[in-house]
Design brief:
74% helix; 32 helices; 0% strand; 659 residues
Length: 659
C-alpha cells in the first residue's frame, strides 16, 4: 500500500473507495471503513490534504448520527490526527515552520467542538473507568485537541462550561461541563489557565462535596486531580480548602474516592521540590492525608473501583516526597505497614477471591515499605529489618511467587533493603539467594527475571567480596540465560550489567570466570553493532542503546574489580576488540542522535573504557592519540551539557594524553 500511496492517482482511487464505503448501508462495512481512515491518518497523514473536506463531512456526520461503533471510529480519526500534529509540532524547525504540518485540527475545530460537546452529554448512568463510549471517547479526543490547539480551544470550551456547569436540572450537562474543563488542562499555557482555574477550583470543590450526582462528583474529583497536576500556583492558593474537600470526598463512593486518591497523589508530586526541606508547603496536612489514605485501604468496599491499590500508591508517593522535617511520620508508618503485611501471611482457608485480594495487598504493602526504606535509610530501618525480611521470605516461599506482580514487588523490596543496609544485609543472603537464583531461571516470567537480576546487583554492592560463594552458580545461570533465545530480549542488557556487578564485587576471584564471560560479552558487543534500527522504531532504538551501554558496564565492572586486586593484566587480551567496539559505537550517528542525552552517556562510557585501557596498558595511549575518531569522541563528550558526562570526558582525555 505504501507504494500505491506514493502515486497520486492510485492513492486517490484508494481514498475514494474507502470514503464511499464509509457511507455503506452495512454498519460493519462503515465501521471497517472508518478504521481504515484512522490507520491512514496514522501512517499517511502528509497525504490527506486533498481528501480532508470529504473526510471532514463523513466524520462529523458519523459522530452525529451513526451507530456508536461507527461514531467511535470517527472520533478516533480526529484523535489520531491530533496525535500526529502534536508529534509534528515537536519536529518544527527553529523558525516555527514544518512543511508536513497541515493543522487540520485548527481548521476543523469550530465545527468539531459542538459535536464533541454533544457526545460528552451522552453518558451512561453507571459508567466507570473501563467504559468506552461516545462520551468517554469525546473526552479523550478533547484532551488531544486542546494540546494541539490550546489557544483556540479555550474560546470554545469556556462558554460551554459556563452554560452547563450550574444546570441543576440536568446532571449530564454538569458532568459534561466538568469533563470538558478537565480535558483541556494539559493544553493551554499556565498564563492562560491560571485565571480560569482560580475561578473554577472553588466551584469544583463545592461540587465534589455536595453534588447529588455520583457521576458529577466522580468527574469533579478527576478534574481536581488534573488541577493538582498542572497548577501549583492555584493549588497553593486554595490548599487548605482543597485538602479539606479531598479528605471529605475520600469517604465518598469507591469510584469517587479512587479519583480523590489520584488527586492526593498528584498533590504529593506537585511539592516534590520540598523533599529536602525541614518544612514543606504540605507539611501541615501530611499526617491527616496519610491517616485518611490508610483508612481508605481498610474500607469494606476498598476492593471496588481499584480503590485499595490507588490508596496504597498514593501513600507511597506521599512517603516518597515527604519533606525531611516530616520524616518522623514515615517512622510511625513503618510498624503499621509491617503489621499489615504480617497479617497477610499464614492465612489458611481463604477463598479464591480472598487469595487474590490478599496477594494484591502483599504487593502494595511491599511497595510502600520499599519506598519507606529508601527514605529512612539504615539508621531508621535497621530495627525493622528482621520483621520485614521474615515477611518477604515467607511470601515468596509460600508461593506469593504464583503472582508475578507480587514477586516483583517483594523482590524489589528486598533489593532496596540490601541497598540501604549494605554489609548488614549479609545475614539474610543465605535465605535470599535461592529465591533470586530461581528468579534468574523464570524465563517465562521475564519481569520477575529482570527484577531478580537487578536485586543480585544490589546484593553484590551490599556485601562485596562476601558474594564470592554465590558467584559461580549465579554466573552460570546468567550465561545460560544470555544464551537462551526464548528469554525476552529486554532482560539481556540487565544480565550483562549484572556480570559487571559480580566482577566488581568479588574482584580477583572473578578471574576463574573471566574467559566464558568475555566470550559472551564480545558476542553481545558484535551483535549489538550488527543489529540495525530505524529511527522511527523507538523500542528497538532504546533496546540497542541499552544493550551497548550494558556491554560497557560489564567491561568496566570487570576491569575495575580485577584492578582492585591487581589482576587487571588479564584484560590486555580484550583491548583490541573493545577498541573496535568503541569505534563502531561512536560511528553510529543515527543511533546516537535518536536519543541525544542517552547517546552522549553511551559515548562517555566508551571514553571511560578508553581511559581505563590507557592507564593500564603500555603503549595503547600513544596508539589512541593517533586515531581521529578518538579525538572526535572525546571532544563530543567534553562538550556535553551534562556535567557528569563532561567530567568523564575530561578524565579520559587526560588519561590518554598524559601517557
Amino acid at each position: 500500500v505504501r507504494a500505491n500511496f506514493a502515486v497520486e492517482n492510485e492513492r486517490t482511487y484508494i481514498m475514494q473507495n474507502v470514503c464511499a464505503l464509509a457511507s455503506d448501508s452495512d454498519v460493519v462495512v462503515r465501521k471497517s471503513a472508518f478504521e481504515c481512515l484512522v490507520k491512514i491518518a496514522e501512517v499517511y497523514y502528509d497525504c490527506l490534504d486533498m481528501y480532508m473536506n470529504v473526510i471532514y463531512q463523513l466524520t462529523i456526520q458519523a459522530i452525529k448520527q451513526d451507530e456508536e461503533v461507527v461514531a467511535l471510529q470517527a472520533i478516533e480519526f480526529w484523535s489520531t490526527i491530533a496525535e500526529e500534529e502534536l508529534s509534528l509540532e515537536v519536529e518544527t524547525t527553529k523558525d516555527g515552520e514544518n512543511s508536513k504540518l497541515k493543522r487540520f485540527v485548527h481548521i476543523a475545530l469550530d465545527h468539531l467542538c459542538p459535536v464533541i460537546f454533544d457526545c460528552l452529554m451522552q453518558q451512561e448512568e453507571l459508567q466507570d473507568d473501563d467504559t468506552w463510549n461516545k462520551s468517554t471517547a469525546a473526552g479523550s479526543c478533547l484532551d488531544l485537541l486542546s494540546e494541539c490547539a490550546p489557544a483556540k480551544i479555550i474560546e470554545r470550551v469556556v462558554p460551554f462550561v459556563e452554560k452547563n456547569i450550574a444546570d441543576q436540572t440536568n446532571w449530564r450537562a454538569r458532568e459534561a461541563a466538568i469533563m470538558a474543563f478537565g480535558s483541556i488542562l494539559e493544553g493551554p499555557s499556565p498564563m492562560v489557565l491560571n485565571p480560569l482555574i482560580e475561578k473554577a477550583l472553588p466551584v469544583m470543590l463545592t461540587i465534589l462535596q455536595h453534588d447529588e450526582s455520583l457521576a458529577v462528583r466522580d468527574t469533579a474529583a478527576w478534574t481536581v486531580g488534573r488541577v493538582c497536576h498542572v497548577s501549583k500556583t492555584q493549588v497553593t492558593r486554595y490548599l487548605k480548602g482543597l485538602v479539606g474537600s479531598l479528605l471529605h470526598a475520600l469517604k465518598d463512593e469507591p469510584q469517587v474516592a479512587k479519583n480523590v486518591c489520584w488527586a492526593i497523589h498528584n498533590l504529593g508530586e506537585l511539592y516534590e521540590d520540598d523533599i529536602d526541606s525541614q518544612e514543606g508547603t504540605l507539611s501541615p496536612y501530611l499526617e491527616q492525608l496519610i491517616v485518611a489514605v490508610l483508612e481508605a485501604t481498610l474500607r469494606p468496599d476498598a476492593d471496588e473501583s481499584g480503590l485499595r491499590p490507588a490508596a496504597y500508591e498514593t501513600l507511597s508517593v506521599l512517603i516518597q516526597y515527604m519533606p525531611e522535617g516530616n520524616i518522623n511520620i514515615v517512622e510511625r508508618c513503618v510498624p503499621l505497614l509491617i503489621e499489615r503485611l504480617e497479617s497477610t501471611v499464614n492465612n489458611p482457608g481463604l477463598t479464591a477471591d480472598d487469595l487474590a485480594a490478599n496477594a494484591e495487598s502483599q504487593g502494595l504493602l511491599s511497595g510502600a515499605l520499599s519506598i519507606a526504606t529508601q527514605r529512612l535509610k539504615a539508621p531508621g530501618i535497621v530495627q525493622h529489618a528482621d520483621r520485614m525480611m521474615t515477611c518477604y521470605l515467607q511470601i515468596l516461599n509460600q508461593g506469593g511467587g504464583k503472582s508475578a506482580s507480587v514477586s516483583e514487588e517483594v523482590i524489589m523490596a528486598i533489593g532496596t533493603l540490601a541497598d540501604v543496609l549494605e554489609g548488614e544485609f549479609l545475614k539474610y543472603v543465605e535465605a535470599v539467594m535461592p529465591i533470586l537464583l530461581a528468579g534468574l531461571q523464570a524465563w517465562d516470567q521475564y519481569q520477575v527475571c529482570s527484577v531478580a537480576v537487578g536485586v543480585i546487583g544490589d546484593v553484590c554492592r551490599a556485601i562485596e567480596k562476601l558474594f564470592t560463594p554465590f558467584a559461580e552458580q549465579t554466573i552460570g545461570l546468567v550465561l545460560a540465560a544470555l544464551g537462551n533465545n526464548d528469554l525476552d530480549k529486554s532482560v539481556k542488557p540487565l544480565m550483562l550489567s549484572c556480570l559487571g556487578d559480580i566482577a566488581l564485587a568479588i574482584g580477583g576471584e572473578f578471574q576463574k570466570h573471566f574467559d566464558p564471560v568475555m566470550v559472551m560479552l564480545r558476542t553481545a558487543a558484535e551483535r549489538s553493532i550488527a543489529s540495525q534500527a530505524s529511527p522511527d522504531d523507538h523500542d528497538m532504538v532504546d533496546w540497542l542503546l541499552q544493550l551497548r551501554s550494558s556491554v560497557f558496564e560489564a567491561f568496566t565492572g570487570t576491569f575495575q574489580g580485577l584492578r582492585n586486586d591487581n589482576r587487571q593484566e588479564i584484560m590486555l587480551s580484550q583491548n583490541e576488540w573493545m577498541t573496535r567496539y568503541c569505534q563502531a559505537v561512536a560511528a553510529d550517528e543515527m543511533l546516537l542522535s535518536a536519543k541525544r542525552l542517552t547517546g552522549e552517556k553511551l559515548l562517555s562510557q566508551a571514553a571511560g573504557v578508553l581511559g581505563d585501557m590507557a592507564t593500564t596498558t603500555p603503549g595503547i595511549a600513544a596508539e589512541l592519540q593517533k586515531m581521529d575518531w578518538v579525538h572526535n569522541l572525546l571532544e563530543r563528550v567534553c562538550e556535553s551539557e551534562d556535567a557528569s558526562i563532561r567530567r568523564t570526558g575530561m578524565w579520559a582525555t587526560a588519561a590518554i594524553e598524559r601517557q
